Amino acid sequence: MARQISEIQNEMLLAIANDSVLSLVFTSTSATAMFRLFTYIVAVSIGTMENLFDTHDAEVATTLFNQKSGRLPWYRTMALAFLYGFDLVTDHDYFDTTGATDEQIEAAKVVKYCAVNEAEDSSTVIIKIAGEENGVLAPIPLEQKEAFEAYMEEVKWAGVDLEIINFLPDRLYLSIQVKRDALVLDANGISILNGNNPVNEAIQAYMKELPFNGELRLNHLIDRLQVVPGVIDATILNAETSWIDAETAGYGDLQPLNIATIPESGYFEVVTFDNITYVV
Question: Transmembrane segments in this chain: where (predicted)?
Answer without folding.
Answer: 21-43
